[in-house]
Amino acid sequence: MTAFARIRFAALLLALFCLTTAPVLAQKLGPDGAPNPTASVTNQKTLLERAPRIQGRIDIPDVKAGVLMQPAGRTWDYFHEVLLHWGAALVIVGMLAVLALAYLIMGRLRIEAGRSGQTIVRFEAFERFAHWLTAVSFVLLGLTGLNVTFGKVLLRPLVGPDAFSDISQIAKYIHNFTSFAFVAGLVLITVLFFRDNLFKRIDIDWVKQGGGFIKSKHAPAGRFNLGEKMVYWLSVAAGIAVSASGFVLLFPFYGTNIADMQIAQVAHAVIAILFIALILGHIYIGTLGMEGAFEAMGTGEVDINWAKEHHDRWLAEKLEAEGRQTSATPAE
Amino acid sequence: MARMKFLCDADRCIDCNACVTACKNENEVPWGINRRRVVTINDGKPGERSVSMACMHCTDAPCASVCPVKCIYPTEDGIVLHNKDQCIGCGYCFYACPFGAPQYPQVGNFGSRGKMDKCTYCAGGGGSEAPGSAEEYAKYGSNRFGEGKLPMCAEMCSTKSLLAGDGDIIAQLYEERVETRGYGSGAWGWTTAYHEDVKS
Question: Taking the complete model, does pTM exceed 0.80, yes or no?
Answer without folding.
Answer: yes
